[in-house]
Amino acid sequence: SARVSANEAYHLSQRRRVFDVSGLFEISAKATNCKTEQITGFRKFGEGGLNRLFLVTLGTGFQLIAHIPYPLLIPKGYAIASEVATMDLLRSRGVPTPKVYAYSLCMNSWHGSHSSYILMEYVQGTDLGQIWSGFERDEIKSLITLSLMDQLVKFELIMMSISFPAGDTRDLIELSGQRGIPLRLSA
Questions:
Q1: Are 45 and 15 found together in one domain?
Q2: Which residues cross the membrane (predicted)?
């Protein structure tokens, strides 16, 4: 069946992100204290509504995720800053969250990749969506599922206990040495 979409060319252009792969390799190498020649693998790992994920593999077996947002992400720098700050905050409160190795809010050429990005820890495991969709109705009541739900409730309790004063978030400084977007007003 044919798919018809209003403004299809425009919508496809909003999901197209051109970036410098060799520049991203340089940034990845710097963030992991290695040389670009040690990067042995680079493949698309996943895709969401707002970003594309790539798996970067080093010769040592170490892997990290390169998170590249689509151009449609608005507000551009603030969304990346918010995501990095949120992951940092949740990790500081005990919620298992990937470690951020490097990020850029800008699309300037001095960042190397010519794109905003987040380089973060790759966490081995099985996608929860794959596990959940495989359960039969009777299995959902099993101890495994109850244990999973117990863990999710604990994480939600931690997240709900975090207070956010109005207009107050965290400062972020880009690892490149450039000042990020100030998120906390200095008194």
A1: yes
A2: none
Q: Is residue 94 located within the same domain as residue 29?
A: yes
- Predicted confidence (pLDDT) per residue in 36-80, tens digit: 999 999 999 888 778 889 999 999 999 999 998 877 656 666 778
148 and 109 in one domain?
no
Burial of residue 137 (CB within 10 Å: 0-12, 13-18, 19+) is exposed
Quick: pLDDT tens for 110-154: 455 557 889 999 998 877 777 766 666 665 556 566 777 888 898
- One domain for residues 63 and 152: no
Helix (H) or strand (E) holding 129: helix 128-134
Q: Which pLDDT score, from 0 to 100, does residue 112 have?
A: 52
Distance CA 54, CA 45 (A): 5
Residue 168 lies in a domain: no
Taking every pair of Cα atoms in the chain, the longest distance, rounded to a whole number of angstroms, is 60
Phi and psi of 66, rounded to 5°?
-105, 115
**What sign does the CA torsion over 37, 26, 64, 73 have?**
negative
- Residue 149's domain spans which residues? 129-158
How many structural domains compose the chain?
2
Q: What is the DSSP letter of 173?
A: B
Beta strands in 36-177 (DSSP E): 39-47, 51-58, 63-69, 100-104, 117-121
Q: Is the pTM of this model over 0.90?
A: no
